[in-house]
Write a structure and sequence with these properties.
heterodimer; A: mainly alpha; Rna Polymerase Sigma Factor, Chain: A; Arc Repressor Mutant, subunit A; 2 domains; 9 helices; about 0% strand; elongated; B: alpha+beta; Jelly Rolls; Phage tail protein beta-alpha-beta fold; 7 helices; 18 strands; about 30% strand; globular
């Protein structure tokens, strides 16, 4: 079924906590692809991202008896994948220590920000601008818009308050708005 | 979980009125600016899942393997008895309503002349039933989807109450699904991607000529399942369909001799119909027809 309700997911979690592997499989199938894409933003390698997501699910199964069905399992999964990804970067890429992994991935994925104005495709421009946001703003914004998490879930994943999440997202949106404005002015003057 | 719409409004509130429209637009647009790469095809997901199974192997709950062991045992027994492929059948004879409880605890009420079949492995490896006629299902909640097959369509649920009407005798090969509680997915066989999702108080119909089931339409709950209390409810139904229903409900034969009238539609409602003759009398008066008893029922003529 296409539309999986949050009630359905809570139901799965309840079953998983009772060691129901079928429910675990359903949860896995539902979240696996999007979590791999999410991890890829940090670790830049699909193979590594897949490993991290699989380890996270193994961890979830091991903890199944202590899962709280009232808490968002989605937030739990994103949080685990994010932490494992950040640890991986810390442990494996001495060269990039101190660099902003998110930003670097963004720069790699697209051929630099300078050319961004050459494309006319608005959604491509938009995704470029999002990649150029400050790291925390970008994370909060992407978790909200791309991953569909609510503010409380994002707060849990990023280990900050829901208010800070709101501030990050407002700041991100404000930056996008002014970049979009600049772009429109530029387009007019040419 | 909180409503994310509410979260979005909290974001928009931070902007001055003149920027609101622009900000909302960017918000909408940015949803589709997300990465669609790398692609993760289904076979990779399954491979990854089996990796995970290996890693948690020793720790795995037994419930699943037990089910298969039980299934294997049942298969062996059935082969011995030679009845594996004979489905179990519940029928409601003409003139009667039948209620049955399925092995998983779900209950089914069958309208007169309806037939429900399910396999011997029901509730062991699947929860699939097939229906010819009309039935009201109250499905026991479970992870295993409950699937009703009816004339080339499927209705899939996990736990809910709904009505399926799908008479093979109806020349249009029409199936109508109405939901009282929970939600269901309704789709033509093999076209799960065209499923229509129905919420409580919604109905959708599909006929062979349609690409996908009709968009959900509101329906009064008493209309969905009035037949369960013996009511007769016809909403823009053709005389052919109405007479078929009367035949089943009153266990009689009605021959429409004025065959050019078969497609005439009628909307009518009987709270407590006692005898078929008085209903025929009403219909005939409205449609300018006459009727007379025969050896085993009635004939309707001009």
């Amino acid at each position: 079924m296409g539309n999986i309700s949050s009630k359905q997911i809570r139901n799965w979690v309840r079953k998983i906590s009772e060691s129901d592997q079928k429910a675990f499989d359903r949860l896995f199938r539902h979240f696996y692809a999007q979590l791999v894409r999410f991890a890829c933003k940090y670790v830049k390698s699909k193979a590594t991202a897949s490993d991290i997501v699989q380890e996270s699910f193994v961890g979830l199964w091991k903890k199944r008896q202590t899962l709280d069905p009232q808490r968002s399992v989605k937030a739990y999964l994103y949080q685990t994948v994010r932490n494992r990804s950040l640890n991986y970067i810390r442990d494996h890429s001495k060269e990039t220590v101190g660099l902003d992994p998110l930003k670097e991935y963004g720069l790699e994925a697209k051929n630099g920000s300078k050319q961004s104005a050459e494309t006319d495709d608005r959604s491509e421009l938009l995704s470029q601008w999002i990649k150029e946001l400050p790291k925390r703003q970008r994370e909060a914004f992407e978790l909200s818009r791309f991953e569909g998490l609510d503010h409380d879930e994002i707060a849990e994943v990023m280990d900050i308050s829901a208010n800070t999440v709101n501030n990050h997202i407002v700041a991100a949106l404000d930056t996008l708005r002014s970049r979009s404005g600049e772009y429109k002015d530029q387009a007019k003057s040419t | 979980m909180k409503n994310s719409k509410f979260d979005a409004e909290k974001v928009f509130d931070e902007f001055p009125a003149e920027e609101q429209e622009e900000v909302r637009e960017l918000w909408q647009e940015s949803k589709s600016a997300g990465a669609v790469e790398p692609e993760v095809p289904d076979d990779e997901v399954e491979q990854a899942l089996s990796n995970v199974h290996e890693q948690i192997g020793a720790d795995t709950g037994m419930s699943n393997s037990w089910r298969w062991l039980a299934a294997a045992a049942v298969i062996l027994l059935m082969f011995g008895a030679g009845i594996l492929f004979i489905p179990r059948t519940v029928t409601a004879p003409h003139g009667e309503l039948t209620t049955a409880t399925l092995p998983d605890g779900s209950t089914v009420e069958l309208n007169s002349g309806s037939e429900l079949q399910y396999g011997w492995l029901f509730d062991i490896t699947n929860r699939s039933v097939s229906l010819d006629g009309e039935a009201y299902f109250a499905v026991q909640e479970s992870e295993e989807p409950f699937v009703v097959s009816a004339q080339g369509t499927k209705v899939e649920v996990t736990g809910t109450e709904f009505n399926v009407q799908s008479w093979s005798a109806n020349p249009d090969v029409e199936t109508t699904v109405s939901v009282a509680e929970g939600s269901v997915a309704f789709y033509p066989n093999g076209k799960q991607n065209q499923a229509v999702y129905l919420m409580p108080g919604e109905t959708s119909r599909w006929t062979q000529a349609m690409e996908q089931p009709s968009d959900p339409k509101p329906i009064a709950l008493d209309k969905i399942s009035g037949w369960r209390e013996g009511k007769l409810i016809f909403d823009q139904q053709t005389l052919a369909v109405i007479f078929q229903e009367l035949e089943r409900r009153f266990d009689t034969r009605i021959t429409l001799e004025a065959s050019d009238m078969a497609g005439e539609t009628l909307t009518t409602y009987y709270n407590n119909p006692k005898d078929v003759a008085s209903i025929l009398k009403d219909i005939c008066r409205v449609k300018g027809l006459r009727f007379a008893p025969t050896a085993n029922g009635y004939r309707v003529y001009k």
